[in-house]
Amino acid sequence: MALLRVVAGIVAAALVLGVAELVAVFAGAQSAPAYALGATVVDHTPDGVREWAIQTFGTSDKAVLFACMGVVAVVVAGLAGLVERTDRAIGSIAFGAFGVVAAVIGASRAGSPAGALPALLGTAAGILALRALTRRIDAAAPALGATTVPASDDSAVTVSRSGAAGVGRRPILGGIAATGVFAVGAGLAGRLLGGARSNVSAERATVALPSPATPLPELPPEADLRVPGLTPYLTSNREFYRIDTALIVPQVSTDSWSLRIHGLVEREVVLSWDDLARRTPVERLVTLACVSNPINGDLIGNARWLGYRVDELLAEAGPRPEADMVLSHSTDGWNAGTPLSALTDGRDALLAIGMNGEPLPVEHGYPARLVVPGLYGYVSATKWVTELEVTRFDRATAYWTRRGWSARGPIKTGTRIDTPRGRGRIPQGRTTIAGVAWAQHRGITGVEVQIDNGDWQPARLSTEVSIDTWRQWVFEWDATPGQHTIRARSADPAGTQTAVGQDVIPDGATGYPTLTIQVRD
Ligand SMILES: Nc1nc2c(c(=O)[nH]1)N[C@H]1C(S)=C(S)[C@@H](COP(=O)(O)O)O[C@H]1N2
Ligand SMILES: [Mo]
């Protein structure tokens, strides 16, 4: 009996989510409880946990979050089912409480009262199902020999057991199965319809990118040294790291997209996609990096970005003299605070619409995002961007700054060893050590390699394409048998990067990448 009650609670909860998914097709994907609650958890996850999740699960962190939420939901729903009785609706009250909370969060996520509907209607369906299933279980309970039957009364137990299969259990199991089927059907239908309705991939495939004012010059032959195992100079869209807080990739169509520039400006400006089309874009190479990139990590990539100069767009609105920050907002409520000076000092800060010759991939911000050379993504690279709010650092606080990260995030000079890779054993003799080095908007002036605490020796560098992109480096080494420690470090015009190790929080990791390898004899 207890098991049936637990299962009833779980299928009733599944019905809540299934019906909610279906209603969310009309109320907006952001309002589905699974998404709205997940997004709220993401927004309130403590720094340490977030860092641990990113470093442990990488880009699967979102799947892990949903799995954890699923486990919690199953446990809570099972308990609610277990305590529910026809004349004691404790489980239903728990469902109702969940529904109210999810409705409030759904409405606020969707930005409209309609966002409450998925949770409310879903919960109503779930409570009806839980009540109906509980009534059947309670009605059958005496016949099924509930725990109230004294164990010593053998005849009573025997009678009730025999009645179990025939009278009581079949309608209960039927009800549970029907509820489950309905829940899964509604959920799948909601997902399919919602996906078809909002998916912008088809639209993206039809976007014809404008040509830049001047085409990018061809890369110098030595920009990419093409060493086996070494990261290519250009990162393909497929290989490009993805970091964001979005549990559902925002689907923003060019028709609905606009960029509003407001706040401390002379005149508010709203640009539609067609307004952009009347302007001429530029194309630039910029290496984007995440502040959460650990030493030797891969949350960094170099792409060719097509976009409109942010300094020109801002000039149309006319920032007031007291402004010193631009808070850029995305459709999903995320934001970044960028120093106004970084957007207007002449560097190639772009409102990007193209990445490596294609419209922005949807997960990289389609149809438009910011790319600012020299600044970590969390303070600059807003994807799905629709608003530039000109403001001041002492008035506004951006998403990650509220969560303990630095308000300002210039990219720190860094070095990565790509080859040889750690752990494996390598043969003795001539060995190519190679990697990448970056100091966006300052430029890499040199890379040095150290073997076993010996002297630092200069590596060979790829040709500098721009100070906004990384450079490859190569060092030839005659590997001798035994264990060796390899370190690398870079310099920018201000000097050699710091050897002091620091974690990614609050403004980026520092320290030299170190590799320990075994050389065979
Ligand atoms: N809307 C939105 N934009 C965002 C983020 C986000 O969470 N939401 N994350 C930022 C961070 S922390 C980084 S490092 C870059 C990563 O961009 P990519 O995913 O295209 O590599 O996007 C930035 N833009
Ligand atoms: Mo980031």
From TrEMBL:
Residues annotated as transmembrane: 62-82, 89-108, 114-133
Oxidoreductase molybdopterin-binding domain: residues covered: 248-396
Record PANTHER family: SULFITE OXIDASE, MITOCHONDRIAL, SULFITE REDUCTASE
Protein name: Molybdopterin-dependent oxidoreductase
Xref: InterPro entries: Ig_E-set, OxRdtase_Mopterin-bd_dom, OxRdtase_Mopterin-bd_sf
Cited Pfam families: Oxidored_molyb (PF00174)
Keywords: Membrane, Transmembrane, Transmembrane helix
Lineage: Bacteria, Bacillati, Actinomycetota, Actinomycetes, Mycobacteriales
Keyword Acetylation: no
